[in-house]
């Protein structure tokens, strides 16, 4: 396998249980750079646990997560946190924006945490708000904007650090069809332009249709159906 | 989709020549499958015969057909009735998939595979439509959305069915008629089939009956 074919991020035979309840039972997948992959499956199938393991938020009980040449599952916590801040971006179902900060400050926050000076961080944040078509909410706090606008701000925040991988967990779960569609169009469009891979956890087929391919998780195991004439 | 009623709707908007009707129809509703001229003129002949359109004028020209068609009052009534009437939802795909799942279970195959392959095919089409939407105008987007929502409904059914496969297998087994249901079965006796695939017990039991699918779907 050449370097180009090496996956950017890979999970190999992941096992994870919460108490006596198994969440992952041998889940494996590989994601290439710049690829948008939908992880689908019914509620409780283990898809969110899989995302959390891939992102280094949860440590698997067994199996390995590899990001480029490094084994995430074996890294010390501080190193994993640094990797998450520098290389990964996150979008959750409910934006999880900091309520005390303005939308602009929310988007600038990851840059500020990485040591970027305020003026520069806010300049770049403003660019991303424009790219996500929500310039008009820059000065508002998250409590005062609509769900769709809040999610676009969250997408801008995920992209502002130019991450290599964006993890999106049900990013449109709290939105109506039209807003959900706009968020998906902007999220995948911006990620593709930036060359970032996207791991998109969703149970909605119309959302999954924005991905390049889908992986189905059922009972903690991954299944990928590759059709013959692809 | 009814070509005749679509023509009537277009003619209600304004009188047109046959070739013009074809061009507008193909552009708006053709979806890559243009009408044949034969279809256009046979449809117009039918509408003319039933008094729904009339010839509004004939122009001299090189082509074989230079008639301009206009809608009649009866035609307008027909369009109004057609637009007010809901279309029958198409349930044939589900019927086919349902039959495949039941037959999969009855023959001891992995019915989840049937559903997985169908899901992958549905999602492949949904990806194509989503890309087409991104490149298209508002009309394209609305037409693609219609298809996407319908495909999504199919997928919900696939998911629900996948979650109920065990239940379905049990139901198939429990609703299987006893062997004496038919004269041939009575003669054959209650022996289990031999040499078949390693079917799940439910599937094997269900395979012994002939009318399982009918009973479950009733």
- Beta-strand percent range of chain B: 5-15%
Largest β sheet strand count, sense and barrel closure of chain A: 6 strands, mixed
Can you tell me the CATH architecture of chain A?
3-Layer(aba) Sandwich
Strand content of chain A: 15-25%
The strand line-up of the biggest sheet of chain A is 6-7-8-3-9-10
Tell me the layout of helices and strands:
The complex is a heterodimer of chains A (230) and B (218).
Chain A: E1 9-18, E2 21-31, E3 36-40, H1 47-54, E4 62-67, E5 70-71, H2 77-87, E6 88-91, H3 103-113, H4 118-131, H5 147-159, E7 165-169, H6 177-194, E8 197-201, H7 205-208, E9 213-218, E10 221-223
Helix pairs in contact in A: 3-4, 3-5, 4-5, 5-6
Chain B: H1 3-13, E1 16-17, H2 18-29, H3 37-49, E2 53-58, E3 67-71, H4 73-84, H5 92-106, H6 111-135, H7 138-163, H8 165-174, H9 183-188, H10 201-207, H11 212-217
Antiparallel strand pairs in B: 1-3, 2-3
Helix pairs in contact in B: 1-3, 1-4, 2-3, 5-6, 6-7, 8-10
Structural account:
The complex is a heterodimer of chains A (230) and B (218). By secondary structure, chain A is an alpha/beta fold. Chain A has a single domain (9-223), classed as Rossmann fold. Helix content of chain A is 34%, strand content 25%. Chain A has seven helices and ten strands. Chain A has a six-stranded mixed beta sheet with strand order 6-7-8-3-9-10, with helices on both faces. In chain A, strand 9 and strand 10 form a beta hairpin. In chain A, helix 3 crosses helix 4, helix 4 (118-131) packs across helix 5 and helix 5 (147-159) packs parallel to helix 6 (177-194). Chain A is globular. The relative contact order of chain A is 0.20. The mean pLDDT of chain A is 90. Chain B is mainly α and 218 residues long. Chain B folds into two domains: 3-84, Orthogonal Bundle (Arc Repressor Mutant, subunit A); 92-217, no CATH class. Helix content of chain B is 66%, strand content 6%. Chain B has eleven helices and three strands, in the order H-E-H-H-E-E-H-H-H-H-H-H-H-H. Chain B has a three-stranded antiparallel beta sheet with strand order 1-3-2. In chain B, helix 1 crosses helix 4 (73-84), helix 2 packs across helix 3 (37-49) and helix 8 (165-174) packs across helix 10 (201-207). The interface between A and B is medium-sized, with 19 and 23 residues. Chain B: Residues 8-77 form the Transcription regulator PadR N-terminal domain. Chain B: This is PadR family transcriptional regulator.
